[in-house]
Amino acid sequence: MPKYYGCPCEGCGEPLTLKDDIVVCPDCGAPYHRTCYEKLGRCIHSPAHAAGYEWHFPYQDAELRTCPSCGERTLRSEETCRCCGAALPPETEADEQLNDRKAAQDEQQGGVCIEGFQYEQQTMDPLHRNLQAAFGKDELIDGIPSSDWMTYIGTAAPAYLNDYSRMQLQHTKISLSFSALLFGPFYFFYRKAWKPAFAFLAAELLLFVPTLLQMMQITGSSLSLGLSDSTYVVLGRVVSLASFALMLVRGMFAKWFYRKSAAEHIRRIRAEFPDDAQRSVVLSAQGGVSWGAVLGSLLLLMVFGACCSMLLGPNLDVLLNALS
After folding, report:
1. Greatest alpha-carbon span in the chain
2. pLDDT at position 84, please?
3. DSSP secondary structure letter of residue 92
4. Which one, of 119, 79, 85, lies nearest residue 6 by Cα?
5. DSSP symbol at 184
6. Tell me: the pLDDT tens digits for 112-122?
7. How far apart are CA 25 and CA 34, in angstroms?
8. Closest CA to 134 of 23, 44, 245
9. Residues 6+ apart with CB under 8 A from 113
10. Alpha helix segments (H runs only) across the chain
11. DSSP helix/strand/coil, 27
12. Do 146 and 153 form a contact (C-beta atoms < 8 A)?
């Protein structure tokens, strides 16, 4: 990321050199040494992110000159290059004119020109800036190009990829999803994440078993286990705690579960369809969202409920009175 070389690290204030491992805040674009960012645990400008704060290149082009050793732009006022540490020779009149011309050209074109490449700092897409900061310039997420991810996820791709960039930089699998928190397994069916969808649905149904057993005993079913009321009280408390824990896991790790499921699907599609045009069509068709899957899961629950009702005993009035 050449445009950050020579800039001060927002954590320690030391210049970012060619040898440094540089990371960039996915929200405002502020650059850090990786060790500084990990030590801080967050961007120092995070309180201002909600107000739309964005980091800007701190130097004017007139303050910069080209280092003859590394070719990067560095401050004219210093005796050594901020990027490579080499001693800077005195500028000749020709050097000054060349630097002035470069500065004027950069200002006219809206960026910093380094080794013939134009870096348009203010117009860089924030999404791609975040992806490059987290996953490198090739934007490979779990070894898959970001373009395939965007095609597979669909219209919500920018939000998910920004979250994945933040999670990657912070080395965490946690990202709160209110949709998964509120709608449970239906979130995963909607996003076509089949493995976590059926896993969480099975967990929810398993937690319903103690309630079903108690209902069978209340209605006088011949299949009831004959457990004591105190046992059902204990089971109820255990189920309540387990349900709460399951809800937290689902809400906090849903996006990570979805990422793993999507990566598996995308890899399979990439292996089967090497042609870019065909792969794009298949990714779009097999990705995205599905209301049909949500309706199908609701139908499955209705069938499960009907099967459970067949296990109840003949004294349904007792159950209705107990519920009322």
Report:
1. 102
2. 82
3. P
4. 85
5. T
6. 443 333 334 44
7. 11
8. 23
9. 102, 105, 106, 119
10. 34-40, 46-49, 93-109, 126-135, 146-153, 157-170, 178-183, 185-190, 194-218, 229-272, 276-286, 291-309, 316-323
11. coil
12. no
